[in-house]
Amino acid sequence: AQKVTQAQTEISVVEKEDVTLDCVYETRDTTYYLFWYKQPPSGELVFLIRRNSFDEQNEISGRYSWNFQKSTSSFNFTITASQVVDSAVYFCALSVSGGSNYKLTFGKGTLLTVNP
Amino acid sequence: SQTIHQWPATLVQPVGSPLSLECTVEGTSNPNLYWYRQAAGRGLQLLFYSVGIGQISSEVPQNLSASRPQDRQFILSSKKLLLSDSGFYLCAWRTQGNNQPQHFGDGTRLSIL
After folding, report:
1. For A44-82, what is each residue's pLDDT tens digit?
2. No. of H helices and E strands in chain B?
3. Which of B43, B105, B109 sits opposite A108 (nearest CB)?
4. Which of A30, A49, A78, B54 lies at a C-alpha separation of 20 to 30 Å from A110?
């Protein structure tokens, strides 16, 4: 069975601070896929990034960056120079290849509040 | 491009009344479809998924049912709502394939009185 842990329930920062959201996963599958989603106050979940287990390259997209480390089973998300619009709940998720690839295992989410 | 429509956006229903929430996807064919519920505690609970027309799998026993009468239509129903059915309901779709992400609708906020 798969498991995703987001130990940080809530984080509060002041605008322009950098913030890292932690994600630790568990799976016995050797091929798997990791995702991050953003859920702003309006409610819809927005897909941010996907990372395959065989690709450990970190990724940067504007102020967002992701650090994937298989050795520690972590897929952390950093927002640089945070802005009020970054305030949302962020979910990390995991899926595996093969017959169960349709299912996403979600973490419980981290509520990020960016104060002006 | 693909889009997902979910309605209504909000709904207030009395206990014991029926429910029908609809979700449609445009711009793709044979998607996987999903219904999730999100309670106030933020966790996402998968209720149903479908890999094809008429194929429905239930993840948790409950008062709800789902149907997929057409390739890109997914309906969540109940004959008699319970107070515990209150929550935020999200529909999602994905292209079939190992590494495909799910894409979510805007959600329906359901309040049971």
Report:
1. 999 999 999 988 888 888 999 999 999 999 999 999 999
2. 0, 11
3. B43
4. A30
